[in-house]
């Protein structure tokens, strides 16, 4: 039995002459939240469509629940829920009616609708027209729709795209609940590193259809060392003092010194050291990496 909910083995996919996915070997462990990260146009949506057999893959390159997708399409898709692009929601129907519709379509008991509304935190809004829902609520209703057949695996393509901060938090918390309390495996795509870092247990990073990194979130953090920016006066002397205490100076401008971030305690100690030596520290800031900086780290490491 495979421990992977999804495994692709050297997957290749072209649209006409254009290679979209190249030698892609994804391994999505069961029970994980797998963040599928890459810039716009990297091939994330195409890969998700391949995983749903909406686009046909070459034989023996895509396995879901250990089974080859082209030969086991129906059996696999029964166990998969997906939200790709916009959720198919009727605005003139209530949230509950939208889900009941889906139940009827799939021949599932209508009571499932209320269960999924509760799971998605939409019970109070169940009888409100979907057109009156916020974007975050619509997205959660879309996820509830994808969950109605009680799938083991959920594929979510950029589910937080276009949401306001509240909507993003709602969807993020729902994903965490689904994985930790309901045992679902989730593959979620995004072009934002910070978004994936907050939810994922595992990460796959693609660029131009190729896998640049795959591993646990901890392995990703080891690779992408966080930085501490120190804004301080008398920069040359401050920099000399910091270097004397054994810190590596990564960068220096006329206002800021950048060193590796190790812990909050170490940052505090550095602050105290500078202040006790008569420097004025105006800010200490842990720099968050964006996807571009992470790409640089990965390319350097490889
Ligand atoms: N039906 C299609 N025919 C031809 N080319 C396509 C088709 N769909 C996507 N592409 C191309 O495939 C490449 C990958 O697109 P894809 O949508 O998979 O990327 P993505 O990583 O999901 O990015 P985005 O976040 O922008 O959707 C792009 O260059 C895109 O133009």
Description:
The chain has 11 helices and 16 strands. By secondary structure, the chain is of the alpha/beta class. It has 2 domains: 4-222, 3-Layer(aba) Sandwich (Rossmann fold), CATH 3.40.50; 226-301, Alpha-Beta Plaits (2-Layer Sandwich). A 6-stranded mixed β-sheet has the order 8-9-10-5-11-12, sandwiched between helices. Strands 4-1-6-7 form a 4-stranded antiparallel β-sheet, with no helix packed on it. Helix 6 links the parallel strand 9 (153-157) and strand 10 (185-190). The radius of gyration is 23 Å and the shape is globular. Bound molecules: adenosine-5'-triphosphate. Adenosine-5'-triphosphate is lined by residues 15, 20, 38, 40-46, 191. Adenosine-5'-triphosphate binds next to helix 1.
Short précis:
The chain contains eleven helices and 16 strands. It has helices at residues 44-51, 73-77, 95-106, 111-119, 135-147, 165-180, 193-199, 217-223, 235-244, 264-276, 291-301; strands at residues 4-8, 11-15, 18-24, 27-29, 33-37, 62-64, 67-68, 80-83, 153-157, 185-190, 202-207, 210-216, 227-232, 251-252, 256-260, 281-287. Adenosine-5'-triphosphate (ATP) binds next to helix 1.
The unique ligands bound to this protein are: adenosine-5'-triphosphate
CATH class descriptor name of the largest domain: Alpha Beta
Mean pLDDT level: 91
Structural class: alpha/beta
**The biggest beta sheet, please?**
6 strands, mixed
Distance between the termini: 32 Å
- Count of alpha and pi helical runs: 11
Order of helices and strands: EEEEEHEEHEHHHEHEHEEHEHEEHEH
Task: Supply the CATH superfamily name of the largest domain.
Answer: P-loop containing nucleotide triphosphate hydrolases
Give the tally of β-strands. 16
CATH topology of the largest domain: Rossmann fold
**CATH architectural category of the largest domain:** 3-Layer(aba) Sandwich
- Rg from C-alpha positions? 23 Å
- Which residues form runs of ≥5 with pLDDT under 50? none
What's the domain count? 2
Report the sheet-strand fraction: 25-35%
């Amino acid at each position: 039995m495979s421990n992977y909910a999804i495994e692709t083995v050297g997957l290749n996919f072209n649209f006409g002459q254009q290679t979209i996915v190249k030698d892609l070997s994804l391994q999505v462990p069961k029970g994980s939240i797998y963040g599928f990260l890459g810039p716009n146009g990297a091939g994330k949506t195409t890969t998700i469509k391949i995983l749903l057999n909406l686009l046909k893959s070459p034989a023996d390159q895509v396995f879901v629940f250990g089974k080859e997708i082209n030969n086991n399409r129906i059996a696999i898709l029964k166990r998969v829920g997906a939200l790709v692009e916009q959720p198919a929601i009727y605005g003139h129907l209530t949230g509950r009616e939208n889900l009941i519709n889906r139940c009827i379509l799939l021949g599932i008991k209508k009571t499932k609708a209320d269960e999924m509304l509760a799971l998605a935190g939409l019970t109070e809004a169940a009888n409100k027209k979907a057109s009156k829902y916020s974007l975050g609520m619509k997205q959660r209703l879309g996820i509830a729709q994808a969950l109605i057949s009680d799938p083991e695996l959920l594929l979510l393509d950029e589910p937080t795209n276009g949401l306001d901060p509240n909507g993003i938090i709602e969807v993020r918390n729902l994903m965490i609940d689904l994985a930790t309390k309901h045992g679902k495996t989730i593959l979620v795509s995004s072009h934002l590193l910070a978004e994936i870092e907050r939810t994922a247990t595992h990460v796959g990073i693609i660029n131009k259809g190729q896998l640049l990194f795959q591993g646990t979130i901890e392995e990703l953090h080891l690779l992408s060392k966080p930085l501490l920016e120190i804004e301080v006066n008398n920069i040359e002397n401050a920099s000399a003092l910091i270097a004397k205490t054994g810190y590596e100076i990564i960068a220096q401008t006329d206002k800021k010194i950048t060193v590796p971030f190790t812990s909050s305690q170490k940052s505090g100690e550095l602050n105290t050291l500078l202040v006790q030596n008569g420097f004025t520290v105006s800010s200490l800031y842990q720099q968050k990496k964006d996807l571009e900086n992470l790409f640089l780290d990965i390319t350097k490491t490889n």
